[in-house]
Design brief:
Blueprint lengths: L9 H10 L24 E3 L6 E5 L2 E5 L3 H11 L13 E5 L2 E4 L5 H10 L39 H10 L7 H9 L50 E7 L19 E5 L15 E5 L7 E2 L5
Parallel strand pairs: 6-9
Antiparallel strand pairs: 1-2, 2-5, 3-4, 6-7, 7-8
Length: 297
Amino acid sequence: MSKIFPRISAILIMGAILFAVWSCASSAAPNANPNANAPSNITTRVSATDGKTMVLVPAGEFQMGTSNSQLAFLEKDWGLKPSAVANEVPTFKLSLPAFYIDQTTVTNAEYKKFIEANPNYAVPFVDENVVAASNWDKTTRSFPANRGNYPVVLVTWRDAVAYCQWAGKRLPTEAEWEKAARGTDGRIWPWGNQWDATKANSNQQENVDIAPVGKFTAGASPYGALDMVGNVWQWTSTLDKPYPYVATDGREDANASSLRITRGGAWGFGPSIDRTSLRNRFESDGASASIGFRCAQ
């Protein structure tokens, strides 16, 4: 199996292609709250090592997973078959302590700091023509020209872990990632329960391609995290195991070599995949031009 592209079911891929030609208009989801404006009252701090802005996710309970009413809405408006995302159920309440999470995914320029601090560490590179535009130069150890503010990609799960540890941080669990993306009201997208193509880098953009981080500020999560859906998938610390999420059941074993959960969707997908609760999985030693990461603390 290829370790270059995220492994997603054929049903989801077909649906994502269809969404590219659909209107971004959508009927209201059941129990829809008005789409949230970009948050104005958020708590931030700057990480000392990599200089990244991080946003606070307060302690407390949130809904994890996709509800039956949300599945019915996504099937009706966006053609998503509930059977294709059975790993998102059942929904449940989960309480987490407070944590900080990077406001954006790690960029090439930020990853360059890690590479410079670790001169023997391999740069992101996969010897395949299809990802050539994302490859770093192995001789100069530099990222692609004019892409300093783009998400670093072609990084394995262990690369992401190594960067976060160097920065004095860690990868978020998938539970932390989901709460940071949707807040406490169980919303489908970071801004609310109605899709808006202007708020995420998806296949509904005129130019379907990876974008600089932080471009879609109106799509911020309730805590001010940006690009939580679309643009690139994001590694989490979590192994692929069924719900409900239980942190102590082995799914957070850092030494296991198995599939890890990635979140958020990517630029080549649409509303049914670029969601706060969708779960994808990928080989921990694989690298993709559409998978990046952000750190937590």
